């Protein structure tokens, strides 16, 4: 009886009125979406309701599945619909098929506001999330107490784990965790921030969990951070669910938040920064979406260059040089078209299941030229203590790539 139960309450729907009123049209759409998911229909019933004057008043419909059911109820007078999908996962994991049905139905009704819920049935203690590295390789981790939310842009989920504490994933891809976030955030921030003699102004594009802002605020010279996160829901939920990661940074008076597309923001602003951190989701998520894709082009990198101060630096993550070699190489190539100095480095991020690539790009500041003693002195002068990954002796070592990764650097 193990299974996944999904519900969605959709409001202010802008989809076709026929889906709300015509039982046959609704039946055809729900049937087509369910068949496309690969689940097995074994029965159906769609019943139209009528008002006292005989006019149509909504439809209730159900598909019986070999795997369980899909149910829909429409309220045309409220432009609302409720969706209910349950699948059994006893012999096969049908979770992705169930989520696809809900996603496609939501797209068909086009709501302006959605409330989504997930309930694991028959396995109250735990289930597993799978993290894909390629189409053929990944890993899974045991999760419990799953909470799922749908923003207008993406699906955001939180769960408890034994190895990582609370984790957040977006559109099926792991983003951050309480226990290992330092591996990613410390190395995204400090190699560049400590290569700068006194960074004052920083821009974070993405980074709605607040982890990058929290690391930046450890540098006493920082007097302003602009956090440009496209999805306000990520910030709102991170405030509530990830305090161990942002540690109040999202509400620090030095942090100003703007919710817009990063490329549009860079093109329109006249401000300049000492540091620009591209703390983005992967350019291609497991479900094929790509919110971050507009921030991975030579034009965008050139626009960032124009917004940096003379000693300023841009930092970006590149994916895994082993599992994503083409992404690693092509991103470096695009950076080289926009910056005179491009220095890739790698760190191991347990939540991502791989050695992960990052890069610092600038007009003339070379992080590889900063000595061990200079980094140690700056850490001491800035009173930065308690780091769990990065330290002075590690700085130069980060940029010593294994030969297979070195071979990916464009000539």
TrEMBL record:
The record's Gene3D superfamilies line, in alphabetical order, gives: S-adenosylmethionine decarboxylase, Spermidine synthase, tetramerisation domain, Vaccinia Virus protein VP39
Which residue spans adopt a coiled-coil conformation according to this UniProt entry? none
Pfam families named in the record:
AdoMet_dc (PF02675), Spermine_synth (PF01564)
- The answer to whether keyword Transport applies is no
Residues binding spermidine are 185, 209
Needs which cofactor?
Answer: pyruvate
Which EC numbers characterise this protein's activity in its record?
A: 2.5.1.16
What positions does UniProt annotate as the active site of this protein?
Answer: 279
Question: Which UniProt keywords are present, listed alphabetically?
Answer: Autocatalytic cleavage, Decarboxylase, Lyase, Polyamine biosynthesis, Pyruvate, Schiff base, Spermidine biosynthesis, Transferase, Zymogen
Catalytic activity, per the record? S-adenosyl 3-(methylsulfanyl)propylamine + putrescine = S-methyl-5'-thioadenosine + spermidine + H(+)
Pathway the protein acts in: Amine and polyamine biosynthesis; spermidine biosynthesis; spermidine from putrescine: step 1/1
Residue stretches making up the PABS domain: 127-363
Task: Report the InterPro entries cross-referenced here.
Answer: AdoMetDC_fam_prok (IPR003826), PABS (IPR030374), S-AdoMet_deCO2ase_core (IPR016067), SAM-dependent_MTases_sf (IPR029063), Spermi_synthase (IPR001045), Spermidine_synt_N_sf (IPR037163)
Describe, as the record does, how this protein assembles with itself and its partners.
Answer: Homodimer or homotetramer.
Name the PANTHER family for this protein. Answer: THERMOSPERMINE SYNTHASE ACAULIS5
Q: What does this protein do?
A: Catalyzes the irreversible transfer of a propylamine group from the amino donor S-adenosylmethioninamine (decarboxy-AdoMet) to putrescine (1,4-diaminobutane) to yield spermidine.
Q: Which family does it belong to?
A: Belongs to the spermidine/spermine synthase family.
Protein name, per record = Polyamine aminopropyltransferase
Q: Which gene encodes it?
A: speE
